[in-house]
Write a structure and sequence with these properties.
The complex is a heterodimer of chains A (about 160) and B (about 210). Chain A has about 160 residues and is mainly alpha-helical. Chain A has 7 helices and no strands. Classes of the chains: A mainly alpha (about 160), B alpha/beta (about 210).
């Protein structure tokens, strides 16, 4: 858990946002705990955990789709103490706006460090398609950066 | 200028940063919050088979582990806590989590013991890690009172096999619950102290402590 916990949290945050990530993280490890005795010792634990997290994300995205979407510019509801809020950046907004496949490909390959062959299996597509989704996703994110003179945040460029 | 002034790697690094640490909470706080949530969920669903914690004591860091039935393992630092947790995973269940609350009772009784406030442990214990004759020996060790000692031969006789002196020695050497099951009170017939899984200097210190309080 110490080894894979941070990776799974990053994936959960990327796919679900910070507020729902805690739940998804705990649910992922709980599912892992339940299934663990049946796991073959040579299994790829990280890929297996990310797969569970991915399914949680799909479930949660579906159940969100059935709920009315919050309007973007409503005043933010005060968050409960200790519950992390999403970062207030253009990049985050752009990332959340990506199609699920692109977001998944970017998260699983670039954030979780999985090879495209595993990402493809997760996204139910070919390796080439997964690679393309990730590239399209990154290209989409690049467009969210201010053009021309970089702002403070990107000074190091 | 176009957006090409940002490299792909920069985008990935920034994305990494915003998904790695929350804007308001530290990593340690996050880890604790998540861990607590997982322990609660695991307890709720009945999939937490072994809980553990470590405590500081005058004889070094101690690992305490418990099953639903009771305290199942106490391990000294020199046994290597990671190795011990690995054994628990193989021999009992890989569903192991650090869950300090479940071991609050054991931790506070050990504290009281080390401060001279407690002479007997009043805790449910789980002897599943000891089998056969060794288990019988451990059961008898609990009859040796605080401040007293018994010889390996006496324990062998009490366990119904007077000739099994060496087997008593190995039962003590493999005691999964040192301190709580007081194998440190078993000494050689000639009065010398004998071996101890936590180290003979710890055995000596425990007997000295029990002799004065």
């Amino acid at each position: 858990m110490a080894e894979h916990g941070p990776v799974v949290l990053r994936v959960c945050r990327a796919m679900l946002g910070h507020a729902d990530a805690d739940d998804a993280w705990a649910e992922t490890f709980l599912a892992a705990l339940k299934a663990y005795p049946d796991l073959r010792p040579d299994s790829n634990v990280r890929a297996w955990l990310v797969t569970i997290a991915h399914r949680k994300a799909i479930d949660q995205t579906r159940s969100r789709a059935r709920r009315p979407l919050p309007v973007a510019d409503l005043p933010e509801t005060p968050s409960t103490i200790g519950v992390p809020a999403d970062p207030d950046t253009e990049l985050w907004a752009a990332f959340q706006a990506l199609p699920l496949k692109q977001r998944g490909a970017v998260a699983y390959h670039h954030l979780a460090g999985m090879p495209y062959s595993e990402v493809a299996a997760l996204l139910d597509s070919s390796e080439a398609a997964a690679r393309r989704s990730a590239a399209d996703g990154i290209a989409g994110l690049r467009r969210s950066y201010p053009k021309g003179i970089p702002d403070d945040e990107h000074e190091r460029q | 200028m176009t957006s090409t002034n940002v490299s792909d790697q920069q985008v990935i690094d920034d994305l990494f940063a915003i998904t790695t640490s929350g804007p308001t909470t530290s990593d340690i706080a996050t880890e604790q919050r998540l861990h607590t949530r997982l322990v609660d969920a695991a307890e709720r669903d009945g999939v937490l088979d072994v809980s553990y914690r470590t405590i500081d004591s005058p004889v070094g860091s101690l690992l305490l582990a418990a099953t639903e039935d009771g305290l199942v393992r106490v391990a000294f630092d020199r046994e290597d806590h990671d190795v011990v947790l690995g054994h628990l995973a193989t021999e009992i269940s890989p569903r192991i989590l650090r869950a300090p609350r479940r071991l609050d009772g054991a931790a506070s009784q050990l504290d009281e013991y080390f401060s001279g406030q407690r002479r007997t442990f009043d805790l449910p214990i789980d002897l599943q890690l000891a089998h056969g004759f060794r288990r019988a020996v451990l059961t008898h060790l609990r009859d040796i009172a605080y401040g007293e000692t018994a010889s390996y031969a006496m324990v062998a006789a009490a366990s119904g096999s007077p000739a099994a002196v060496r087997a008593v020695g190995s039962a003590c050497a493999n005691n999964p619950l040192p301190l709580v099951v007081p194998c440190h009170r078993v000494v050689r017939s000639d009065g010398s102290i004998g071996q101890y899984l936590g180290g003979t200097e710890i055995k000596q210190a425990l007997l000295a402590m029990e002799a004065v309080t």
